[in-house]
Amino acid sequence: MAKNNNHHKQPISAVIWEKRDILSPNNYNPNRVAPKELELLKISILENGWTQPIVANTNKEIVDGFHRWTISKDKEVSKLTNGLVPVVYLKKMDRVTTQMATIRHNR
User: What is the pTM of this model?
Assistant: First the structure.
């Protein structure tokens, strides 16, 4: 295996536990989920814990993970981490680049 020490520069290496209320949803997310799917997401987090962070831009607007953020307000889910959610912040991006990132994450 080649030595590559650049992994620490990847966003996933900088997960931060934040209060869910500092994040806000974007107003352009094309992804919709049925209530049954949200219930499955809740079960997944309760049984397996948080396995994916929420992705946000530097303005604390959600780029990916809106449904994880939504379900995090559930009392049972919130209790797991005292109301905190895992967040990865992307570098500063303009509005169009942020929207493209959201679409790509949802594909």
Answer: 0.82
